[in-house]
Amino acid sequence: DDRQLKEFFSEAGKVREIRMIRDRKTGRSKGFGYIEFFERQAVQKALMMDGREIKGRPIIVTTTEAEKNRQPSTANTSTGDRIGPTRLYVGNLHVNVTEDDLRDLFEPFGPVDNIQVILDESGASRGYGFVHYKEPESARGALMSLNG
Fold first, then answer.
1. What is the 3-state secondary structure (H, E, C) of 20-85?
2. Contact 35, 5 (CB under 8 A)
3. How far apart are CA 124 and CA 47, in angstroms?
4. Are 97 and 125 in contact (CB under 8 A)?
5. How confident is the model at residue 12 (pLDDT cuts 50, 70, 90)?
6. Number of H helices, E strands in the chain
7. What is the pTM of this model?
8. Which residues contact 54 (CB under 8 A, 6 or more apart)?
9. Bridge pairing between strands 87-90 and 125-133
């Protein structure tokens, strides 16, 4: 719920607003949302919370497209000097696609840090996931070859 998310992200800074995206018909959460902070430096702290768990499930923290357009994109890599995104959104997945299936498809482009298929409360796939590469070049290669 919004209150729990506000408490969780308050560790990064003072939260101005939380907006969870919900299904129009059922009102159920779609599993993602937006958080706005009062101070810009809280965004960087929140990005460091990527991978932490809420209710036993790891969360993915990224900037919004609007945020990416306002500042140069730099990936959080071990060297810190790589430019470009390392995380790819993978959508329209069949419900039977597993993380191993995605690994088989995406690993040929380079070393993968993490793969996650997003699941609903019952453990069924929501039809999308994320692939997080170690290097931006690998993510670019996969995007160029597989997008579409």
1. EEECCCCCCEEEEEEEEECCCHHHHHHHCCCCCEECCEECCCCCCHHHHHHCCCECCCCCCCCECC
2. yes
3. 27
4. yes
5. very high
6. 5, 7
7. 0.49
8. 4, 5, 8
9. antiparallel
Q: What is the pLDDT of residues 82-116, one digit of tens each?
A: 456 688 888 889 999 999 999 999 999 999 988 98
Q: What is the pLDDT of residues 36-46, one digit of tens each?
A: 888 888 888 88
Taking the CA of residue 53 as centre, how many other CA atoms within 13 Å lie in the half-sphere pointing to its CB? 3
How far is the C-alpha of 89 from the C-alpha of 82, rounded, in Å? 19
Contact call for residues 72 and 85 (beta carbons, < 8 A): no
Q: Tally Cβ neighbours within 10 Å of residue 28.
A: 11
Q: Which amino acid is at 69?
A: N
- Measured at the CA of 28, the angle between CA 25 and CA 33, to 5 degrees, comes to 115
